[in-house]
Amino acid sequence: MSLPPALFCLLCFTFILIFFPNSATSQSCSGLNFTTNDTYGQNRDTALTALYSNVTSGVYFYYTTVGEDPDIVYALALCRGDYSAQVCSDCIEVSKSIILSGCPDRKEAVTWGPGYERTCIVRNSDLPILNVLQIQPMLTVQNGNNVTNGLDQFNQLRTNLMNSLVVSAVLGNTSYNVKNFATGNVNFSSLQSIYGMVQCTPDIGQTDCTSCLYGAINDFQSCCGGLQGGSVLKPSCFIRSDVYPFYAMGNFSQNNPYNLPKDMDGDIEVESLQYDIGIIKLATNDFSSSNKLGQGGFGVVYKGRLPCGQEIAVKRLSANSLQGEEEFKNEVLLAAKLQHRNLVRLLGFCLHGKERLLIYEYLPNRSLDQFIFDRTMRANLDWEIRYKIIGGIARGLLYLHEDSRLRIIHRDLKTSNILLDMEMNPKISDFGMARLFDVDQTQGNTTRIVGTYGYMAPEYAVHGQFSVKSDVYSFGVLVLEIVGGQKNNCFSVGEDTEHLLSFAWRNWREGTALNLVDPAISNAPGNEIMRYIHIGLLCVQENIASRPTMASVVLMLNSYSTTLPVPSQPAFLMNSIVSPDSQAHDILANERARDTINESSITELQPR
Fold first, then answer.
1. Which of 390, 394, 413, 415 is nearest to 403 (CA)?
2. Which of 173, 181, 201, 358 lies deepest, with the highest CB count within 10 Å?
3. From the CA atom positions of the chain, what is the Rg in Å?
4. Which are the contacts of 282, defined by CB distance < 8 A and separation ≥ 6?
């Protein structure tokens, strides 16, 4: 009869604990003595049991207090960020036994779990331990195999790797959604790589975490400098390196909240998003013009590379924001919590004097407009890719409108704000910018029109009224641009000059809608393209109520059994008030025109 994996793992840990106590387990006992089974002892047992039972529910870090002075017990548990909740809970259960047997009557104890893998840290004390850096006692574990060739080069590469992982861990620039945790590797030769891992308890700040990890790296040189691998473990942090991939590539804990006191954010801490100005200047070569990616109404965007090797995009905001530092941090925090595969990920920010920087993931294919409106590049966009781009934009916009923790109205959806990753997946950028610039507005109206004309819904451009249907209008314009390969301003059709929307509507009415299709598209099913043109026209209808929601749009894009309503005439605002050679001049003959910021993006964040 086979055993369940969890039970088998627990039995293995117990076997190691019983038969190999010296090599398999390690704990440190300190502090005052107490009498077994007195009030303190009972509180300690309760606290250690609470660690195990709560980690079982999927929390990889847990902190608790039990009792009152003078018998209060503080306890915490941390598991490696790459391990599942089951492996974590098994380790903590065995670690509880290690403490109870190894430190039966001492008020302070710490253990790093059984075996060479050392999968968890478990601590208890009669003194507060949360938010307190603790670097002693220390445990070192060695991989006894020597480095036989190129020791100096091996050590240098390993040190560089571990130093870069420290930066990644404290800045959160990793593929794991686990605070203060990073893994990585570097090639030593064509046949051998060096692997590394660093982690701090998530309660300590960037400065303490950095100090603890760099100290552990120095200690590693003393214990394991000539060996292929080893670990240095401290109460607040640990590091490990070896010549084989000892860590799991997946992240099993990304949805697990920290069970921390109420004065700490249980999801993301603002401090964990803040970058040092020195690192950003180093990454961008002091904002070198050669690293400039683009410029908009809100500032200049630069490409950068962090010491760990990760590429980033840094938006250097212009000096328009009226917010204080705390307000700015809070709005960045809101934007950072928005996570979707079709949104550009905000990694963090930097505040230094007058400098306000936003740090985003870097997307190598840049923006959609550089493909779709370039005669050479758009040949790379076959129908399958355009189909994927339209669907991805729709899903990202639906998330902003309905599925995120906030209701987000983008208000500047356009091709230059759609970025493309290596696989040409679209990601919406520049959401979350409105409050960073303290725009004078209410929930549904604004006295300051911001955005890009041509994509603006008429009710917003003329009256300052915005809603989710304003974004739907912009999406419709995007669909027609992607299908047609034409900008939404005026263009020549033979001897005539037409606007994209009027051209699409006229050909739809005349039954010649395929005239809109970009000649660069080949072998595309005509009925499918016709359906996308139909959906685009539904989105740009003048009547706000007639436009579909993004939920309906996503359904229409994915279900061909859904019957589409007949579109009504689009708003020909652009055709009547925009000159053929300009999108942004002489738009509105009133006071609002003077407040317009062209080529900038703005987002309204409304709590649900």
1. 394
2. 201
3. 29
4. 307
Contact, 24 vs 96, CB < 8 A? no
| Closest-CA residue to 145 (of 88, 227, 219, 223) | 227
120 pairs with which residues across the strands? Answer: 79
* Structure letter (DSSP) for residue 402: I
In one-letter notation, the amino acid at residue 268 is I
pLDDT-derived band at 6 (thresholds 50, 70, 90) equals very low
Last residue of a domain, one of 98, 125, 152: 125
CATH code of the domain containing 473: 1.10.510.10
DSSP 313-376: EEEEE-TT----HHHHHHHHHHHHT---TTBPPEEEEEEETTEEEEEEE--TT-BTHHHHT-TT
pLDDT digits (tens, 9 = 90+) for 29-45: 988 999 878 999 999 99
pLDDT-derived band of residue 330, with 50, 70 and 90 as boundaries?
A: low
Tens digits of residue pLDDT in 555-603 = 999 888 778 999 998 876 443 333 333 333 233 323 333 333 333 333 3
Residue 73 has pLDDT above 90, yes or no: yes
Q: Which of 285-292's residues contact partners 24+ apart within 8 Å by CB, and which partners?
A: 287/314, 287/316
Is residue 414 exposed (0-12), middle (13-18) or buried (19+ Cβ within 10 Å)? buried
Whether 287 and 316 have beta carbons less than 8 Å apart is answered as yes
H helices present in 5-66, as ranges:
5-19, 21-24, 39-56
292 is in an annotated binding site: no
CA distance 156 to 362: 28
What is the DSSP track for 529-587? HHHHHHHHHHHTBSSGGGSPPHHHHHHHHH-TTSPPPPP-PBP-HHHHHS-TT-SSSS-
Which CATH number fits the domain that encloses residue 161?
A: 3.30.430.20
Residue range 140-159: average pLDDT? 89
Q: CA-CA distances (angstroms) from residue 101 to 117, 233, 453? A: 21, 21, 72
Q: Which residues are catalytic?
A: 412
Within 13 Å of residue 166, how many CA atoms lie on the same side as its CB? 23
Q: Is 268 inside any structural domain?
A: no
pTM for the model: 0.53
Q: Is the pLDDT of residue 13 over 60?
A: no
What is the arithmetic mean of pLDDT over 199-212? 92
468 — pLDDT class (breaks 50, 70, 90): confident
Structural domain that includes position 27: 5-125
The rounded distance, in Å, linking the Cα atoms of 263 and 249 is 32
**Do 230 and 332 sit in the same domain of this protein?**
no
CA 493, chain centre distance (Å): 44
Asked if residue 256 belongs to a domain, the reply is no
Q: How far is CA 527 from the centre of its chain?
A: 38
Q: What is the 3-state secondary structure (H, E, C) of 462-494?
A: HHCECCHHHHHHHHHHHHHHHHHCCCCCEEEEC
pLDDT at residue number 593? 32
Does residue 73 form part of some domain? yes
